[in-house]
Amino acid sequence: MPFITKPVQFIGTLVWVVLLSYFFAQIEIQIEGGAGWAANLPTWRIEHHWLLDLFWGGRAMTGYHAWVFPFIVLFFHFPLFFMGHWSWRAECRIVSCIMLFWIIEDFLWFVINPAYGLARFSAAAIPWHKHWLWLAPADYWVYMIIAILLLWRSCSRAPVSESVECLTARHIPRKT
Fold it and tell me: How far apart are CA 168 and CA 176, in angstroms?
């Protein structure tokens, strides 16, 4: 039975990430319309900084993104806090899912946005994605490779010693 449930759980996780990406893309389309990367939102912006080139692909940092990115990170980590269990394996799976979420969400934003569509998914029509490789933003390829490696790591047979139990389970004596 574990042979059956593991692939089902893995595929279910990926389907769930795609579903979350679709819903969040729809939310962002309703918020931003055709003006991507919070171009017309009433928020602060930092347009140029060397750290933006290094970590943000040269895109501006906005107040909107400064809040939405940590929100998504916290959202994906909620199951660990709810269950009271953390492990390196789970962290690899979560970070991988976050990366896949942003790649899929960003792509879907263009595909289902009435102001863009698949036909306008190009470097010429999307100025905030500054670096392109093989018909897609370079970020997609870099993060896809990292996400796949992390996902592979999360599926590997890591030693149980990597697991870190919840403080209540490890440090508070249980009544027998």
Answer: 15
Q: Which region holds residue 33: left if phi is over 0, alpha if psi is between -120 and 50, else beta?
A: left
CA 38 to chain CA mean position, Å: 18
**Token digits for 65?**
């993104």
The model's pLDDT over 56-93, given as tens digits with 9 standing for 90+, comes to 777 788 898 889 999 999 999 999 989 888 888 889 99
Task: Give 46's strand partners.
Answer: 61
* Residues 32 and 38: beta-carbon distance below 8 Å: yes
CA-to-CA distance for 152 and 162, rounded, in angstroms?
A: 16
**Domain ranges, ordered by start, for the chain:** 2-171
Tokens 């055709």 -> residue: 34
* pTM tops 0.90: no
